[in-house]
Specification:
With 249 residues, the chain is mostly helical. It has five helices and three strands, in the order ααααββαβ. It has a three-stranded mixed beta sheet with strand order 2-1-3. A hairpin with a 2-residue loop joins strand 1 and strand 2. The protein is rod-shaped, with a radius of gyration of 40 Å. It starts with 11 loop residues before the first helix and ends in a 6-residue tail after the last strand. The structure holds zinc ion. The site of zinc ion (ZN) has 8 residues, from loops.
């Protein structure tokens, strides 16, 4: 039986192979994420927009109800004034002198003005509600449009997730297995380089004496050392870890 090697005992060549495997798995996971692309963000954005539109619709409906209440109040005020007018007109028949007549006349004029004012306000509130109803109609259309788009995007995303989740799960498990074989110092370096590179590559091959990550020249001496896998060599320019060219293997 062969004793299991501890992390410290594994050769540089094995370390490089493990790093290469890790990079390969990570690139595959990255590609799945690229496939999903902006969809998760788009779905979230649409959900937020719909939420905002629904709030707008609700507050507008509340304003309409407030205005309806105002209209009712004004109608009641108008009815009250009309009743008073009837009463004053009866009173006017029974007056005994000019002074009393004038005084009742003033009250009559005042109540007529009250009715005019109430009618003016009712018209204003009604006109406001026409505008608000238009806002609600427009908002309803917008909500419907956004909901249709959300359905589409969700369907798209669900399909991609369904198609890729099994593969992703396998890759994540594989990644965990490889991870265990690599010493922390190298893992930290790997993550650091990967996070700072736009294409997510921390491990690259040397192709035609050039770095496969930043394409700067690699000296023939370094290229040879990379091929020999006796030392971990990093690019002088971008810091990426070199592995031998795949073509030559
Ligand atoms: Zn480089």
């Amino acid at each position: 039986m062969v004793a299991k090697k501890t992390i410290d005992e594994i050769s540089v060549a094995e370390k490089l192979d493990n790093l290469a495997s890790l990079q390969e798995v990570d690139t595959k996971i990255d590609n799945i994420k690229i496939l999903r692309g902006e969809l998760p963000l788009e779905v979230k954005g649409l959900e937020d927009e719909i939420e905002g539109l629904k709030t707008r619709k609700k507050t507008t409906e509340e304003l309409i109800n407030d205005n309806k209440e105002n209209i009712t109040n004004q109608k009641n005020a108008s009815i009250e004034a009309a009743e008073l007018i009837k009463k004053y007109e009866k009173d006017q028949m029974k007056v005994r002198n000019n002074r009393e007549f004038d005084s009742i006349n003033k009250e009559l004029e005042f109540q007529k003005l009250e009715i005019e004012l109430a009618e003016k306000k009712i018209k204003e509130f009604e006109s406001l509600n026409v505008d608000k109803k238009q806002i609600i109609d427009d908002t309803k259309i917008k909500i419907k449009e956004k909901e249709d788009r959300l359905d589409e995007k969700k369907k798209e995303l669900d399909e991609i997730i369904k198609r890729t989740s099994e593969e992703e799960e396998k890759l994540v498990k594989k990644r965990a297995r490889i991870n265990k074989k690599i010493e922390q110092r190298l893992l930290d370096a790997y993550e650091r380089i990967r996070n700072s590179s736009r294409n997510g590559l921390a491990v690259v091959s040397v192709e035609r004496n050039a770095c496969g990550g930043c394409f700067n020249r690699v000296t023939p001496q370094q290229a040879l050392e990379v091929e020999n896998k006796k030392k971990i060599i990093a690019c002088e320019h971008c810091g990426r870890i070199f592995i031998p060219s795949v073509e030559k293997e």
